Amino acid sequence: MGLLHQPELAPGPHRDLVDALHRLHREAGRPSLRAIARRAGCSPTTVFHLFTHPRPPAWSLLEEVVTAIGGVPADFRDLWLAATADGARHLPAPGRTIAGRRAELLVVRRHLEAGGGLVVVTGEPGIGRTTLLAAASQQVSTFVARAGGVPVRAAAPFALVSDVLRSARLADDGRWFDEALARCPAFVPPALARIVPEIGPSRPDPEDRFAAARLFAAIESTLAALSSLRPLALVLEDLHWSDPSSRGFVERHVVGGRGVPIVASLSSGESAAADAWLTRVRREAALVLNLAPLTPKETREQLRLLIGPRLRRGDVERVHAVTRGVPLLTEALARSMTAGTALAPVEDLLSPRLDQLDPSARTVLLVAALAERPLPPPVVADATSMGRAELADSVRDLVSRHLLADPYTATDVTVRHPLVSAAVRARLVPGETAPVHRRLASAVSTTAHVSPAEVAGHWRGAGEPREELRWRVAAARAACDGLARDEEALHWRRALDLWPADGPAPADAGITRCELLLELVHATVGSGHTRHTGQARSWLEEALALAPALPERDHALALCRAGQVLAQADPQASVDLADEAIAVLDALDDRVALVRAMGVKSSALRGAGRNGEADVVIDRTLETTVRLGDPALHRGALIERAWHDIVLGRTAHGLRAAREARSIVVEGDPFSDVWLGTYHTDLLLMLCAAADDVADAADPGLAAVREAGIESFVLSTMLLCNVAEARLHAGAPGAASRLVRPRTRDDPRQPTRFLHLVRAWVQVVQGDLEAADRRLEKVASLDFGVSAHRQAVVNVQAMCDLWRGLPARALDRIGAGIDGETVTSWSPYTGSLLCLAARAAADVAAADPGRRSDLAAQLAAWQQQWSTDPLAPEAVHAAAAATRSTWRAELARLHGVPQLPLWVGAAEQWDLVGRPHEAAYSRWRGAEVALRENRDVLAGRLLRRAHAQARGHVPLLGVIDRTRAGAALPAVSALAAPRRAGSPWTTPSPRPTPSPGA
Q1: Domain boundaries, the chain
Q2: Has UniProt tagged this entry with the keyword Nucleotide-binding (predicted)?
Q3: Is 3.30.70 the CATH classification of the domain at 345-424?
């Protein structure tokens, strides 16, 4: 690797650091790079670059190397800080040290500096999670944005995410944050303003169907832009007290090595939801560090840091026996150590310090403990009615007693540890908390970034239901604006509980009971809590009975939102709500809201099977959007018209509407472009259009994905999957693999579940069946929600099982997958699932003929369980005829009477819709029948055509080749003999070019 040359640097702090490092190396006798690397726990190349690279090294690496060659890291700390002044201005002054935890500290530091994804630090209360994260944050050059969960803000939307974004915004007077926003797409600032309103106006649209995707993409884009300008890491403490939306963001967008590095701390057992979250992210390969108690040696080190080097004989053993290595208990015991110290709970260890407080200090500590979060000194002053001098003296006294956090680690007033807060609250007498909560509610409500959920919590503690109701409504609306449905539902339910039973709500509540009930339905059903659907119906009945006499826009919008989320669970209720909203909006002449209400109604009518009525509503919607001149609304109405026309069999009209929708340009809305592309390609797939036509329809949407950087948007992944699926249907698995393989290098996760499903399909076709089965097992554990998507998963699983020679497993899997389904779909999955079930049943019956009647009865039951027969002649999908022909051929095989005309007819039907692999499978089955009938020439022709069409399908090619070899067929020249007259199915017709209208 050569000599350790010094880089050419201008005189200054960086050159002084390099000179000192090389001087230390010479004084140590010039140890080899391998020796240094072995002691420092890194590679020789890393050590070489540390000595020779012109950029300053990371502190964690420098510290390890200096220690490895016999130096003192403290001697290099000031040199390193001076050399990295531009990138380390945010670092607090070094001073805190930590006992033990060397391995954990190294892991956290390296992750903050050069990691990716998520590290979760767990452990019992008092074990030192906060101390570890604080020490690691101080020792890195990366900007660490910190936030912590607190119980009082557990229902505030994206509380932790907004706190870390504010932390970055406050650094460098906002220049870094502003420059990062300037690099983001145009949709980012207004979307981000939902949760950080100080960056600008947001004007949230409650009817924006892409609002949630827009917000998640905006957060992700902002963090990426910030980290591109300066190294950035996030530290999120006490996730067991955090809001579900912040945990959801971490789980969806950062787990698995993506995005900026995140270190989180969590106490197990504090929250069932947080424990379930930890189980999921652990499965997603997030690193979990469980802090163990300190050893006796580490406890000795902690005691020396606390009380100096002079320890009496037996002190360490006695303290460790009492505290069992829990650092917080060791600290509390060390402050009041006596010769006869015995095992005692932490409350008793803290009692002497709490009993010695004067009234002013006790008041400050009580306010801080009940606030459960850091409070700015002015807020504490308001809540305690203290002057600046008196407050400063009380805070100083509490810090000296180690009850409040040190002032250099927190500028706000913060209780040192949650166990201290618990000890303070345990000593309160009845009635003592209400006045403090009342003062806190008044003080917190005047802050710049007030959290309505926090204020409502304090009014609840004060026992003031009137005030709590007002703030609870504000908290629910803030959660709605922040797209946190779970938190919103909690607030609305609490507001309903607070509603006066004997009269109307106070005028300052800002909502009627009718609207409250409608909003509760929207939040509860919309968040996926289907178990509350029955209760939602009772809320709806009461709301409709309380409908106001005069039309109001807010009331109509509440009706619309409630109807929208009920479209799948209760279509008739959705239609009724939409009708009432349309009547109100028509009277108000609000055309934009009217169009959206009509969209809710048409969707509900289609869900109820009332397609004729939906047709009339869509016509009126199109007429209204034309008069409005709103391109976005008109484009959405056209796509709805296209979908509806094709479902009703008006293919040409539907394609014309889709092409017209594609010609409309909506500036600055990439999510709508992706949505349009997804719907358009869905239609083309349903019509079995050519793969190139599907790719052409997807191009504008995929371009919008690349330009806006919204690859994690679920419709973005579905759009790419549609193109890949078209390539698979066209017999080009290699092209499909090139599309999805770059996005499926890691394990399947919720945002990439569709991509991994298509990748597994490709692996099945390419013959990598074991890998496909392993991938499908992980994919199936994710949430797919919609019935058609769940059927798609079972479809690929059954396909994999059949080619692996496991027909019984495939049959059981299909039965479990469609158990209880009663709806039908014009997607290919229901029909193809039934075909795969018939194929599996025929294979099972071939080995066990006695089961034929039972298997046939089971297949008939599965076919009849749908509200509309998916194999009926009037089925919409273009491949329905081919699917129906294959079903009949498989049933004949199941009954032991396979028929050659059925298989040849099915192959010709698959030819018409451009599905070569399905056609090849049918011809192979037909060749098997021909061989049994001793029609070798015909069998050879069928196998030769099947072999040509099965190109790229490795398992299918294998069975075709084995059939040809086992049958000892005539030579190829004999196979080309003229066909016999009078046999119309002996030579399949040439494959025509598929068209969308086929």
Answers
A1: 13-83, 102-290, 296-344, 345-424, 429-506, 901-998
A2: yes
A3: no
In 3-state terms the chain splits into helix, strand, coil percentages (rounded to 5) of 65, 5, 30
Other C-beta atoms within 10 Å of 933: how many? 12
Counts of helices then strands in the chain (DSSP H, E): 49, 5
Please choose, from the candidates 675, 679, 668, the residue with its C-alpha nearest in 3D space to the C-alpha of residue 643.
Answer: 679
Give me the CATH code for the 102-290 domain, please.
3.40.50
The token duo for 563 is 């109807």
Q: What is the mean pLDDT of each run of 10 residues along the chain (998 residues)?
A: 66 81 86 82 76 75 82 77 55 51 80 79 78 81 83 76 87 85 86 82 65 83 87 87 83 65 82 80 74 72 65 65 67 56 51 74 83 81 82 80 64 74 77 84 79 86 84 84 77 84 66 78 64 65 65 71 68 77 78 80 76 82 83 83 80 85 82 87 89 92 88 87 94 94 85 92 94 92 80 92 93 84 60 91 91 90 81 80 92 92 94 94 94 90 93 93 76 38 33 31
Distance, in Å, from the CA atom of 890 to the CA atom of 960, rounded to the nearest integer, reads 18
Q: In b/e form, how buried is each residue of 278-307, taking b as 16+ CB within 10 angstroms?
A: bebbeebebbebebebbeeebbbbbbeebe
- Strand 118-122 versus strand 143-148 pairing type: unpaired
611-628 and 631-647 helices, crossing angle to 10°? 160
Distance CA 640, CA 654 (A): 9
Are 102-290 and 345-424 equal in CATH topology?
A: no
Contacts 24+ apart (CB under 8 A), 582-591: 583/551, 584/551, 584/552, 584/553, 584/555, 584/556, 584/559, 585/551, 585/553, 585/556, 587/551, 588/551, 588/553, 588/556, 590/553, 590/556, 591/624, 591/627, 591/628
What pTM does this model have?
0.71
> Is 29 exposed, middle or buried (CB count within 10 Å of its CB: 0-12, 13-18, 19+)?
exposed
Element (H, E) at 272: helix 272-283
What is the rounded end-to-end Cα distance, in angstroms, of the chain?
A: 67
- Three-state secondary-structure class, residue 605: helix
Residue in 637, 629, 708 with CA at minimum distance from that of residue 669: 708
User: What H or E segment, with its residue span, contains residue 816?
Assistant: helix 807-818
Beta-bridged to residue 404, according to DSSP, are 415
* Partner residues linked to 265 by β-bridges: 121
CATH numeric code, 13-83:
1.10.260.40
- 3-state secondary structure at position 875: coil
Rounded CA separation 971/969 (Å): 7
Neighbour-count burial of 313, counting CB atoms closer than 10 A to its CB (0-12 exposed, 13-18 middle, 19+ buried): exposed
